[in-house]
Amino acid sequence: MQSFSKIEILMKATASLLLFYLSILPAFSQYFQRQLADSAFLLTKEEVTYDPSYFSIDYPGGDVPADRGVCTDVIIRAYRYFEIDLQKLLHEDMKENFDLYPDRWGLNKPDKNIDHRRVPNLMKFFSRHGNTKKISDKAEDYAPGDIVCWDLGNGTPHIGIVSSVRTQDSSRYYIIHNIGRGQELSDCLFDFRITGHYVFKLGLQE
Question: Cα–Cα distance between 29 and 32 in angstroms, integer?
Fold first, then answer.
C-alpha cells in the first residue's frame, strides 16, 4: 500500500482545493458581474443632478454630495456596494505610476479628490488591473457588469455599465450611466463610438 508523507498529503490537498477554486471561479465571476449590474441599476432610482464641479472629498471612501454626480460617479458608487473603493485603488496606483496616466490636466502629482472621477484615468486603471475585452459592433459581446467607454464627439469621453435589463426587442442590454440627465437606464450601447470595454473584479481577474 502506497504511503504519503505529511507534506505530500498537504500538497495534494492544496492542489485539490486550487482545482476546485478554479472550477467555480468563472461562475462566481459571472455572479459578481450580475450583482454589479444590479447594484448600478439601484442607482437609477436616486435623484441625481449632473454636476461636474470639483469637490474636496474625504479619503478614502470619499464621495461628492449624494444628489450630484457625473458618469464616473455611477461606476464608483456601484463598486462601493461591494466595498471596492476606486478612489483609493486608483490614487494608490497613480502615486506609484503617475507617468503612465493621461496628462491632460496640467497636474504634476495625483489629486485624490478628482483623479478617479475622470474617464481617461479609469480607462487606464481598468486596462492595467482589469480585463480588457474586445470592442465590437455585436451586442452579444457586451455582458452585464461590463464597463464601456465612448467618445461622444470631439474627444469628449463617457463611461457606463452594462445592465442586466434587456431592450424591448431583447437584442442587447440597456446601459446605466449619467450623460446629463442623472443616473439612468438607456438604450445607447451603439449610439457613440466605443473606445473601451473592460471587466474589473477585484481579486477575481481571469
Answer: 5
Q: What's the CATH fold of domain 25-199? A: endopeptidase fold (from Nostoc punctiforme) (3.90.1720)
| pLDDT at residue 30 in the model | 86
Give the three cell numbers for residue 174: 440597456
Instruction: Give DSSP secondary structure letters for 54-96.
Output: -----TTT----TTEE-HHHHHHHHHHTTT--HHHHHHHHHHH
d(C-alpha 140, C-alpha 30), whole Å: 15
**Other Cβ atoms within 10 Å of 54 Cβ, number:** 10
**Residue 123 to residues 68, 129, 160, 170: CA-CA distances in angstroms?**
22, 10, 11, 28
Q: Secondary structure of the chain: what % helix, strand, coil (to 5)?
A: 40, 15, 45
Task: Express each pLDDT in 157-176 by its tens digit.
Answer: 999 999 999 999 999 999 99
For the chain, which residues make up each domain, given as ranges?
25-199
> Any idea of the CA torsion for 96, 107, 76, 127, to the nearest 10 degrees?
-50
- Going by the DSSP 8-state scheme, the letter that residue 179 receives in this structure is S
The amino acid at residue 205 is Q
Helix (H, G, I), strand (E, B), or coil: what is residue 43? helix
pTM given for the model? 0.86
